[in-house]
Amino acid sequence: MHKYRSVRTVLYADLKETGDIPVRQPFPSAHADRIDPFLLLHHINIEVPTYIPPRHAGVAPHPHRGFSPVTFIFKGGVHHRDSRGNNSVVREGGTQWMHAGMGVIHSERPPEDIHETGGVQELLQLWVNSPASRKKDQPAYYPLHAADTPSLKTEDGRAVVHVVTGELLGTKGPIPTLTPVNTFTAHLKKGGQFYFPIPATHHAFIYLLDGELRVEGASVYTAFHAVVFNEDGEGFNLIAEEDTRVFIASGEPLNENIAQHGPYVMNTETEVLEAMRDFQMGKMGILIEE
């Protein structure tokens, strides 16, 4: 018998405006801080406007330093460009993982053919903190397409889990991480279930994009809720009360001081000021979108 983790808290993802894009943000919020090493989670589900070209939609060039901004793509696609010369489109079922390191400028636009493929973008963006010793690494970008993402499927076919990073039941995710981090996406049909073993020291949470799930030993949760677990068990079992898409993450906490200003996540205020200066001086490169 598994010893299930208990639920620490449940966070509803309120809808808010970030720039001109509506996003759902379960954390951080007035009700919850970060879930170390995870800094922020955004759920975006929008119709891309038709009155401007896709190359001008989405998120314009902006800097990052000191963490990994990660995008999990559920509908549509994302065209990533950055000041290190990376230029790629990843579509539904794929992931874009960027270690910002010492600093990089990137943009996140819809693909040029977004309106021919439904015109909808649904994304999760997760910010994963980097340890102090790796915040000044050279930036790195990892595009992972759906076809290259390993998956696990239950015998009854009612649960499919895609492994992006870390390891699940012997299946390893292709994207390297700076510290131990597991990230999975799952589709559970009504009646389907899946048990997720979680390392004892990891902080862990799930987020429901839609549907309804029962966490065995706890309760039933609905769309737009993040369920955060205590570190008191071997894992958790998810049972679908309705067809459900769910994101699962766990990670070794860094237990380090955080100093953050917008897109810079460092350990001291001085380091944040240095990041702002380096961006202004052009040390994070230049991104000219063609």
Helix fraction, binned, reads under 10%
Q: What would the principal axes of the Cα set say about the shape? A: globular
State the total count of DSSP E strands: 26
What is the CA-CA span between the terminal residues? 57 Å
Gyration radius (Cα, Å) is: 19 Å
| Poorly predicted segments | none
Order of helices and strands: EEEEEEEEEEEEEEEEEEEEEEEEEEH
Q: What portion of residues belong to β-strands? A: over 45%
Average of the residue pLDDT scores: 96
> Could you describe the largest sheet, including whether it forms a barrel?
7 strands, antiparallel
Characterise the protein shown here:
This protein is mainly beta. It has one helix spanning 269-280, and strands at 7-12, 14-18, 21-27, 38-47, 59-64, 67-75, 77-82, 87-91, 95-99, 104-109, 120-129, 140-144, 151-153, 159-165, 167-168, 171-172, 181-188, 193-197, 203-208, 212-215, 220-222, 225-229, 235-240, 244-251, 259-261, 264-266. The strands form 6 sheets. The chain has a 7-stranded antiparallel β-sheet with strand order 1-22-19-24-17-14-13, with no helix packed on it. It has a 7-stranded antiparallel β-sheet with strand order 2-3-4-11-6-9-12, with no helix packed on it. A 4-stranded antiparallel β-sheet has the order 5-10-7-8, with no helix packed on it. The N and C termini lie far apart (57 Å). 40% of the residues are buried.
Highlighted features:
single chain; 290 residues; mainly beta; 7-stranded antiparallel sheet; globular
Task: Provide a short characterization of the protein structure.
With 290 residues, the protein is mainly β. It has one helix at 269-280; strands at residues 7-12, 14-18, 21-27, 38-47, 59-64, 67-75, 77-82, 87-91, 95-99, 104-109, 120-129, 140-144, 151-153, 159-165, 167-168, 171-172, 181-188, 193-197, 203-208, 212-215, 220-222, 225-229, 235-240, 244-251, 259-261, 264-266.
